[in-house]
Amino acid sequence: MQHNIFTTMRSLKMMEGCKGPQVYAINPSGTTTTTTTNGFGGVGEKLLQNLLSNSVRSRSNHNYQAIQSKDEVNSAVLAEALASYGLPKIDQIEPHIEFCLKPMNFVETLADVYCRMEGCAQFGKSRMFLEQCALFRGLPDPKLFRKCLMSARLHAVDVHTKVVLSAWLRFERREDELIGVSAMDCCGRSMECPGSALVVGYNPESATDPCMCHRDRGKDTGIYMDEECSTSSSRGGDEEEDFDMSFCIGDDEIRCRRFNIASLSRPFEVMLYGSFMDSRREKINFSKNGISAKGMKAAEMFSRMKNVDSFDADIVLELLSLANKYCCDEMKSVCDAYLASLVFDMDSAMLLFEYGLEENSYLLVAACLQVFLRELPNSMHNPNVSRLFCSSEGKDRLAYAGHASFLLYYFLSQAAMEDDLKSNTTVMLLERMGECASESWQKQLAFHQLGCVMLERKEYKDAQKWFEAAVEAGHVYSLVGIARSKYKRGHMYKAYKLMNSLISDYTPSGWMYQERSMYCQGKEKAMDLSTATELDPTLSYPYKYRAVSKAEENRLGPAISEINKILGFKISPDCLELRAWFLIALEEYEGALRDVRALLTLDPRYVMFHGKLQGEHLVKLLSHNVQPCSQADCWMQLYDRWSSVDDIGSLAVVHHMLANDPGKSLLRFRQSLLLLRLNCHKAAMRSLREARNQAASEHERLVYEGWILYDTGYREEAIAKAEGSISIQRSFEAFFLKAYVLSETSPDSESSLYVIQLLEEALRCPSDGLRKGQALSNLASVYVDVDKLDNAIDCYTNALNIKHTRAHQGLARVYHLKDQRKLAYDEMTKLIEKAKYNASAYEKRSEYCDREMAKSDLSMATKLDPLRTYPYRYEAAVLMDDHKEAEAIAELTKAISFKPDFQLLHLRAAFHDSMGDLTSAIRDCEAALCLDSNHADTLDLYQKVQQRAKEQLPT
User: Where do the TPR repeats start and stop (predicted)?
Assistant: First the structure.
C-alpha cells in the first residue's frame, strides 16, 4: 500500500548537518525561498557532504545491519532533499512561448512561400530561402532548417550575405568545437569556405564544388612579393627616363609619370591636366595630404603595375586612405582585397577592423566580420566586438560600410540567445535586428523574440509592448505573449478574454486551449487541457500538469503513468526531471538515477529542482542508494537495455560508463547513436564531436569526422573520410560508415552489391555484439533489396542470436515478401513483447494482418507515438475506400495541424484532387513542395492539377 510520502516529507525537519547559515529557508507552507542562483551552495551541498560522510563512516563495517543502516540514512537524506527543494507545483511548470514564427495557417503560409519562391527573380531567391529558414526553425527536424540555410547560401549574390550564411552554416555544425580545428579553416566545400565567401559575384552552380582555396597564404604571398620586387628593380632605369613630374613630401621627392597618376582617378586627372596652377608645375607639394613619401612612392608604383602585393600592410593602408580621398576606385579595390587577404584570426581582425570601417572598405570589413562570426559565441565576449554589434552607433557604422543587415542581426541574436537568453547583449542584438527589419515577417520575428526574451527577464511591461508590436506587424501568435504578460501583471481575466477571442476568431489549435487553460481553474482548466491534447498530442504541458496534479493528490503511480505517455515518443529534460522527482518520492532510486543520467546526457549543465541543485550532485546522492556497478556490469546492462529497445535506459548506462571512463570515444559515439534515435539531434552532434575530440587514433578520428559530415549533408566527404580511415587501418566502423553512406547515396543494384562487400568486410573486423547486430541487420536489408531473401534470413537470424531485437522487424519483412504472412505477424509480435518502446512495432505488424486487426494495431501505435504519420495515412486511405471523403480529409487535417509532414500533405492533395477540389489540391501540393521541392510524385501531381485547373478556366 502506498504510504503518504508527501505528508511525511513535508513534516521532516532539517538534519543537524544542515544547520547554520541557511541558503534555502523552509517556511511552514512548504514553499522555498532562495538567496542564491548558482545551484551549488546551500542545502544541496550540505546534504551531499553529509551523505558522503555517512558513506565513509559506514565503510569500516561490512555486516548487513550496517549496510541497511546506511541505506536508511541515505533515504532520509534524499527525502529531506526533496522536502527542502519543494515538491513540483503546478505554477512552476507553465509552458514556454515558442520563439519562432508561428503562422495561424501553416499550410497556407508554406504554399504562399513556395509560390513566391517560384516567381521571384534569381537574385532574390536567397532572401526567400531565409524567410523559409525562419518558418522551419520551429519544426522538430533541424535538417529542414539547415537545408534552407544551404539553399540561401547557394543563391547568395553579395559578399556580405555569403559571409554571414557561410558562418551560420559552420555555427550549426559547431565545427569550431573540434580540437585542432580553427574557425577559419576550410571544410573543403566552397559553400562554407571563408575564402569563397569573399569572392564577388553570383554563381550558384559553383557553390557545391570542392573548394580549391590555398590555406598557407603567408607562403604564397612571400613568393609573390619576391617576384614583384625583382621585377620592379630590373625596370628602374628605363622608367626614370619617362618621369615628367614630382610630388614633394617634406624633403623627399617622388618622381612620377603625370599620365599614370592622372589615370588613377578623375580628381587626379583634373589636378594634373586641368586649369589649375599645379597642372603646369613639374613639382607639386603634397606634404599636407596625409601620405608619407613611402606611401606616395607606392602609389607611383601602383600606377604602373596595378598591384600592391610587394608592399607592407601599413603602406597599403596609406594607399587605401589616399584612394578614398582622391576617389581612386581601382586602387581602393586592390588595396581592399589585399588587406582582406591578411585577415585570418581574431588578432588580425581586431587590428584591421577599425581601419576598414574608417576607410569604408567593403571587403576588409567583410573579412573581419567573417572572423567575428565564425568565432561566435566567444567573440561576443570581447567588449569591443560586443559594443560594435550591440550599439546603434556600431550598427550605423556597419551600415555605412555596407554590412548592417537583418540577416546579420538575425544570426547574431540566435547565437546570443543560445549563449545567454536573458543577457543585455541578447536584448540589444534583437533591438538592432528589429531596426534592420524591412519586410513584414522580419518585423514579426524580431518583435516577437524581443517579447519572449523580456518575458524570460520578467520585464512584463516591455514584453507586452513588444508582443503588441509583433501582432501589429501581423504575427497573431504573439497574442499568446500579450495574454501571458497581462497574466504576470495580475490581469488574469483580461488574459482569459484575449485567448477566448483568439479561439473564436481562428481555427482552434491545441496551443490555443493550452494557453487558455493557464487562466482558468477546476473542470474548465481540465477540459481545456484535454482538448489541447486531443488537437495536438505532442504538447508536453498538459501531460505535466495532469501528472503534477495527481502527485499532489498523492497518486504517484498514475502521475508517473501520465508523464510516461509523452516520454514514450518525445524525450525532454523537463519531463525526465519530473519523472525522477516522482520516483524519488516513491524511493525508487534506481529509476530516478536512470532518468537523471539520461537528462544530463541531453543537457550536461541542467540544474534540478527549479534551478537549485546541479544534476551531477543529484547523481552522487542517488548513486549511494543503488547497487554499485563495475564497467563490466555496465556492459551487460547496456546489452540488456539495447536488446529491449530501451533507449532512455541505454543512455543512462552509457552516461554511467562515461563517468567511469570519461575519455572513451567509443562510448561517446554510442551515445550519439542513441540520441539520434531519440530525435535529439543537437545533443547527438555534441556527443559525436566529443567522440572525435577524444579519439585515441587517427583512423578512429576520421570515422567520427565522417559521421559529422554525413549528418550535416556532406556525403561525398564522409565517404572520403571513411576511405582515409581504411587506408590507415581496416576497422569495423570505417567499413560500416562507408557502406551506410553509399547505401543512401547510390541505391542502384551495382552499388548494393558493393555495399554488401563493405558490410562483410566490416563483420570480419573486431567489434562488439551491439554493433555487429546492427551491421548484420543492415546487410540483410541490402540482401532484400537485391532479392536474396535466404541470405537475408540468415543475417537477421544471426543478428537475433546476439540479441539485436530490432532484427525481428526485418525478418518479418522477408517472411512477408515470401508470402508467409503468419510468420511475419509472429515475428512482429515477438518484437512487441520484447521492446520497451514499441510504437513502430505495432505500426509494422499492422501490415501483416486483416483490416480490423490492422486498425487496432495502428490505433495503439498512434496512442504510443502520435508523431508517426503512417497510421493517419492508412486510416485516411481506408475512409476513402469506404467513400467517406470528408472523414478522410479530416483525419489528415488533424495530423497536419501538429505535424506538417510532406507525405501527409501529398496524400491530402491527392484526395482533394480526386474530389475535384483543385484549389485545395494545388495549395497542399505547394505546401508539400515547400518542405521538399524535389519530391517527384508531388511535382507530378502538382503539374497535373495545375493543367486541369487551367482547362476549367472560362475562355
Answer: 773-806
